[in-house]
Design brief:
This protein is an alpha/beta fold. The protein has 24 helices and 23 strands.
Length: 582
């Protein structure tokens, strides 16, 4: 049953409408003038209003205006005897849902009533949903903001405004997110790029400046919003201030991850600490390490930890471009500088103005490019190809190489003065074989990522696979580990990855078939061996015999090694309800 108000100065029409609508089970109130109808609205909230367009001194349009000013949420249907384009257009503009033309037949009246009431129900549901959503937004302490595909702000909560230091006087709705945020709120643009490119979720950790002037750590998670057709229509971002937890981790020296990098080993903890220190100083950095160790992620972390975090981060792979193309890419060119230069173009240094430029594989650049790069570092200015004028640039330079630049300097293949200009601070990224205690954590992180990517329900991997991984030297480092796990994830058809799912070359190189003794593990530190033992015990549920089998050693040997390296009892991996039931 619905409560319906009818406003018409014809008594016969009021009577007829009351009879027809009452027979349908509705409660009907009829009045003959606008003022009486408005007085009714102050006492009762109807589900539908039917109002005549012509009512004498005050018209149905007058009623419609005042009803909308009062915030009446229900649909309003106009009734007219002589419809005109102007009156109908004005009624619809003022918010009328529909109109009926006299004489009104019973079927017309009941049809419009049903459609109007359904429309009103949907409006109420939408309003309730909006109110509930706003209540959720207000109750969450984390900053929440939703944006459309053009990155215009749709909705936000006060925690987001406070976290990003945005004044209450600033209207955020429909403003571009990139233009609204200051550098204190971090580089969210790159996170949105990732979300829209892959149409999935993404996470980014960065530091920003609090009102007090201190640095604080923010974790931002983002996910795609989809319309009723399943197409990506925008994104939602949740910003969480984890400064207190970050400080506690530093005090306890327990930090399993930092700026999208994973590692709890001593060598990685030292790398994290150095990156954090580099965030305070705007200096040139040289990142060294083997291929596949994650030097690009280190460069991104250095950028995000610094005061340039909200400015561009521009990457250049120096080994992938020929000398002439690389020169134009780095420094830009003017029109007509060479064949094919039909337009002037800025280079990567100018594109990175105010931010950071990452020069990957810096050891592969030619002597001529080395000379021009040295001038940029010394004079802070670039000269475009084909131009005789220079342009000042404010850019932080972070370079990386997997080559030994000292050897290249000795062979006169790399300028000594450029080497020392680049190596103000060196960040040496360790190979995977030097941080084997990070393997279980890396494997878990990569498997979670693959689960999201492929949607396969794989619980984890057999302890024997971890032992196999511990024996493998990983010449391709983390990149090879990712490829190996992806291969195993794809071919695996069961609940866990087994040794036979691992690529044959990894099994062969690690000596899986021969099941070598534990003493052959390629680890150099006793602390690393102790860590491997603890992890094997943990994965085996504390069962020493099972751990020994997984590692390819005898039970007597594992007891001897536990005693030698001082490894005590460890907590087993918690089992799921599904595993317990089996």
């Amino acid at each position: 049953m619905a409560r319906i108000l009818v406003i018409d100065d014809e008594e016969s029409l009021r009577y007829t409408f009351r009879v027809f609508l009452t027979e349908e089970g509705h409660e009907v109130e009829t009045v003959e003038e606008v003022d009486a109808g408005l007085a009714y609205l102050h006492r009762v909230e109807p589900s539908l209003i039917l109002v005549d367009l012509v009512l004498g001194r005050r018209t149905g349009l007058d009623f419609l205006r005042e009803a909308k000013n009062l915030g009446v949420p229900c649909p309003i249907v106009m009734i007219t005897g002589e419809p005109s384009v102007e009156s109908v257009t004005e009624a619809l503009r003022l918010g009328a849902y529909d109109y009926l033309v006299k004489p009104v037949r019973k079927e017309q009246l009941l049809g419009v009533t049903r459609r109007s009431l359904e429309h009103g129900r949907l409006l109420r549901e939408r309003e309730e949903y909006r109110a509930n959503l706003e209540a959720v937004f207000r109750s969450v302490n984390d900053g929440i903001v939703t944006v459309d595909r053009e990155r215009r702000i749709i909705q936000h909560n006060e925690a987001f405004r406070e976290l990003c230091h945005l004044s209450e006087r600033v209207e955020l709705r429909s403003r571009a997110l990139d233009e609204t945020l200051t550098e204190r709120c971090g580089p969210l643009g790159a996170l949105l790029d990732e979300v829209f490119e892959h149409e999935g979720s993404a996470l980014r950790e960065f530091s920003c400046q609090a009102k007090s002037g201190d640095r604080r750590m923010i974790i931002c998670t983002a996910d795609v919003l989809r319309d009723h057709r399943g197409r990506a229509s925008g994104a939602v971002l949740v910003l969480k201030d984890v400064s207190r937890l970050h400080r506690l981790e530093r005090e306890l020296q327990v930090r399993h991850g930092f700026q999208n990098m994973i590692g709890r080993s001593e060598v990685m903890q030292r790398v994290f600490e150095l990156i954090e220190q580099l965030g305070k100083y705007d200096t040139t950095v040289l990142i060294t390490g083997e291929s596949g160790t994650g030097k690009e992620r280190v460069a991104e972390a250095i950028h995000r930890c610094g005061v340039r975090a909200a400015r561009p981060f521009v990457k250049v792979n120096c080994s992938a471009l020929a000398e002439g193309i690389l020169e134009s890419e780095l420094f830009g060119h003017v029109k007509g500088a060479f064949t094919g230069a039909v337009d002037s173009r800025i280079g990567r240094f100018m594109a990175a103005e105010g931010g950071t430029i990452f020069l990957d594989e810096i050891g592969d650049i030619s002597p001529r490019i080395q000379s021009k790069l040295l001038r940029v570092l010394q004079e802070k200015e670039v000269e475009r190809v084909g131009s005789v004028t220079t342009v000042k640039v404010d850019v932080r330079v972070v370079a990386a190489t997997n080559k030994n630049l000292v050897d290249l300097v000795a062979k006169r293949l790399f300028r000594e003065d450029l080497y020392y200009r680049l190596k103000v601070v060196e960040v040496a990224v360790p190979p995977l074989r030097a941080r084997l205690t990070d393997l279980p954590l890396l494997v878990d992180t990569i498997l979670n990522r693959l689960h999201t990517k492929y949607g396969k329900k794989i619980r984890g991997m057999d302890p024997e696979v971890l032992a196999l991984f511990m024996r493998y030297p990983w010449p391709g480092n983390i990149r090879e580990l990712e490829n190996t796990l992806e291969h195993a994830f794809i071919v695996c058809r069961g609940p866990a990855i087994l040794p036979e799912h691992v690529p044959a070359e990894v099994r062969s190189e690690s000596g899986f078939e021969a099941r070598p003794r534990f003493e052959r593990l390629p680890v150099a530190r006793e602390s690393e061996i102790a860590g491997v033992l603890r992890e094997a015990l943990r994965l085996a549920g504390g069962n020493k015999a099972k751990a020994a089998r997984a590692m390819g050693i005898s039970r007597r040997t594992i007891y001897r090694m536990l005693e030698r390296f001082g490894v005590e009892e460890v907590s087993p991996v918690p089992r799921t309800n599904e595993e317990v039931s089996r």
